[in-house]
Amino acid sequence: MLVVLKRNYEEVSREAARIVASAVRAKPRIVLGLATGSTPLGLYQELAALYRAGRVDFSGATSFNLDEYLGLAPEHPQSFHSFMQQHFFSEVNLPRERAHIPDGTISGNYDDYCEHYEEMIKAAGGIDLQVLGIGRNGHVGFNEPTSSLASRTRLKALSRETIEDNRHFFSDASAMPQCAITMGIGTILDSRRVLLLASGRSKAAAVAKAIEGPITSSVSASALQMHPDVTFLIDEEAAYSLTQRDYYRHVLEMTEQFTPGRLS
Ligand code: PGA
C-alpha cells in the first residue's frame, strides 16, 4: 500500500487529479470507477480545469459510479446522478452513454439489476482505476460496517451514522433514503488500481483503522489491505491517528527513487 501524505485538501485534490489524468493519458479507453461526496469535489474541479486546458481527454473513457440512493430519480437534486452531472459530466467530454450510475428507481428484482450492473462492468473490461472516499465509519461506497468482504453490487441498508452524516443535504430530513444500491467490496477489490482520498480530522480514526488496523468487516476500507495496488491520498488532519507517518514518507521517497512508475 502506498500512503501519500499531503498538507491539505487542495494538495490531495491536485495529486488525485494528476494521477487520474495520467491514467487516462496512458489508456484513453480507460474504465474509471467514480465516487460522490464532498471529498472528490476538488478532484472533479481539478480534472475539469485540466480538461479545459486541453491536458486530458475523456472521449474514450467509460465510468461506473459506486452507488446511488434507493428511491431517488436521476433528476432528484440529491441523487448521485445529479451530483455527477453537476460536478463532473457537464464539465468534461466523457460520453454520457458510457457514464454508468446505479439506478435508484428500481423496485423489486434488485438482485437481477445488481447482477446486470456487475455484468456491465465486466463487459467494459473491468475497472482500471477506482476512486474512493471513506466514511467516518470506514465505509467505502455504501458498504457499511459488517458488509461481507466478498460482497458484490447489491441493495444495502444505510447505517445510522451514514444517515446522520447525509441527512442535512435533504430539505426534509425525513426524506433521507434508508437504503442504497452499492458496488460491493469484492467489486471494488476487482479493480486494477484503487485511489482512496481522505481529508479532515473527522476521518482520522477511520483512516487509521483502514491502513493500520486488522482486516475486518467492521471497517470495510480495511479490506483494501488485500488489494495489490492501492494508494491512500491523505491530508494532515485525516492522517492524525496514523502511527507510522515517518515510514510512509520514507516509502514514498524510495518509491520516487526506484519505482516512480507506481506514482504516475
Ligand atoms: P464525504 O463522504 O466525502 O462526503 O465525506 C465519504 C463517504 O461517505 O464515502
Extended strand count: 10
CA(first)-CA(last) distance? 15 Å
**Radius of gyration in whole Å, from Cα?**
17 Å
Low-confidence stretches: none
Fraction of residues in helix = 25-40%
| Strands side by side in the biggest sheet | 1-10-9-6-2-3-5
Task: Provide structural commentary.
There is one protein chain. This protein has helices at 9-26, 41-52, 80-89, 110-123, 160-167, 185-189, 204-212, 245-258, and strands at residues 2-6, 31-34, 62-65, 67-69, 99-100, 129-132, 154-157, 179-182, 193-198, 230-235. It has 264 residues and is α/β, with parallel strands linked by helices. Strands 1-10-9-6-2-3-5 form a 7-stranded parallel β-sheet, with helices on both faces. The protein has a 3-stranded antiparallel β-sheet with strand order 4-8-7. Helix 2 links the parallel strand 2 and strand 3 (62-65). It is globular and about 55 Å long. The model has no long low-confidence stretch (mean pLDDT 97). The structure holds 2-phosphoglycolic acid. 2-phosphoglycolic acid is lined by residues 37-39, 133-135, 139.
Keyphrases for this structure?
34% helix; three-stranded antiparallel sheet; alpha/beta; single chain; seven-stranded parallel sheet; 16% strand; 10 strands; globular
Layout: helices, strands, pairs:
Blueprint lengths: L1 E5 L2 H18 L4 E4 L6 H12 L9 E4 L1 E3 L10 H10 L9 E2 L9 H14 L5 E4 L21 E4 L2 H8 L11 E4 L2 H5 L3 E6 L5 H9 L17 E6 L9 H14 L6
Parallel strand pairs: 1-10, 2-3, 2-6, 3-5, 6-9, 9-10
Antiparallel strand pairs: 4-8, 7-8
Helix pairs in contact: 1-2
